[in-house]
Amino acid sequence: MGNTGKKHGDGSALTVQTIYSDFFIIDELWPDYTDDQLLQALSWYQFQDITLGG
Predict the structure, then answer these.
(1) Strand locations in the chain, DSSP E?
(2) Which residues lie closer than 8 Å to 25 by C-beta, 6 or more apart?
(3) How far out from the chain centre does Cα 7 lie?
(4) 3-state class of 8 per DSSP?
(5) pLDDT at 49 over 90
(6) What is the end-to-end Cα distance of the chain in Å, rounded?
(7) Chain mean pLDDT for the chain
(8) Nearest one of 25, 1, 22, 20 to 12, comparing CA atoms
(9) In the 8-state DSSP scheme, what is residue 29?
(10) What is the DSSP letter of 4?
(11) Three-state secondary-structure class, residue 54
(12) How far is residue 30 from each of residues 12, 15, 37, 48, measured CA to CA in Å?
């Protein structure tokens, strides 16, 4: 799930949709974020423990 801007909550998403979600938060709003920030998020995700609750 992507969350942009300075608001660091997930109030716009249903809880059931975020059960197995990982959050990477940046301060820029879409479409102002850069390709480097996208690559940073993908690199961060690559090293997450993806066990899906198991």
Answers:
(1) 2-3, 24-25
(2) 3, 4, 8
(3) 13
(4) coil
(5) no
(6) 20
(7) 76
(8) 1
(9) P
(10) -
(11) coil
(12) 16, 23, 11, 24
Reading the block at residue 10, the tokens are 């997930």
d(CA 50, CA 15): 19
Write 20-27 long-range contacts (CB < 8 A, 24+): 20/52, 20/53, 22/48
Residue 19 neighbours by CB distance under 10 Å: 9
Higher pLDDT, 29 or 5: 29
Report the sign of the C-alpha dihedral through residues 41, 24, 46, 17, in that order: negative
The one-letter amino acid at 52: L
